Amino acid sequence: MKALKELGQNFLIDPSIASAIADAGEIIPGESVWEIGPGKGILTTQIIQRGARLMAFELDRRLEDPLKTLFGDQLNLLRADVLRVDWNELLAQEPEHIKLIANIPYQITSPLLSRLETHHTSFSRIVLMLQKEVAERLTASVGTKAYGLMTLRLQLLFEIRIALQVPREMFDPVPGVDSAVIVMSPRIDPPRLQNPAVFHQLIHHAFMHRRKTFRNNLMQMLSKLEIAALEKHSKLDLTRRGETFSEAEFIRLCDIIDALRHRP
Ligand code: SAM
Known about the structure:
By secondary structure, the protein is an alpha/beta fold.
């Protein structure tokens, strides 16, 4: 069976890595797990062995029969594009919290992360194999090159760590990039935002042109008067670059903008 590049088909070949990914999921027997793209079933086997009630989304119809033969009714297989199914409807049929464990096709990374942001309260743990560079962005610290919009958006909701690095030779066919497995757990005490829309607008502008100062980027969003007021009330130096601002600083700025806008 020819691997389809357009479906991101780079199949994991080392069962010990599949086992480590499933271990990172800390599966409790009987709990609900979703997998995206079971492929030939290397990770599926490990998830089922740990006693999960598994639902998997697989877009490639050629894999349907082999997966059914391998797992029978131990696997609830949906032959569907995970980005086109109705997540609200499917999650409504699940217990309050489920887990997601997957070696995903890398071309769906961005839209999938957006879905996970939208539905973050439904997941008690997410374990994903991603392109190494994306894993580094998701786990980046303030002030580093990898720190950016994706870091802030996802770290606002999840504690994220890299569980293991996976070299490209562990896949067939060998992809052009290395990979890493991340574990995302809901933040125990997430910050409360006065106005989430302003926070997202602010961080979007902060990283719009990385070479520009935050102040220059902000000109797209705020008037000169508003920027002056923001500088005065926050006591922060807005001529710094966006990547030097911590989450707490962005939240402070966001709350000030919100207050200024609602000033009588
Ligand atoms: N889990 C297997 C493994 O570890 O070897 C396969 C991983 S492979 C990187 C990605 C899998 O996702 C492929 O089987 C592919 O057919 C499937 N896939 C690609 N796009 C998909 C989509 N939008 N929805 C569901 N499955 C998809």
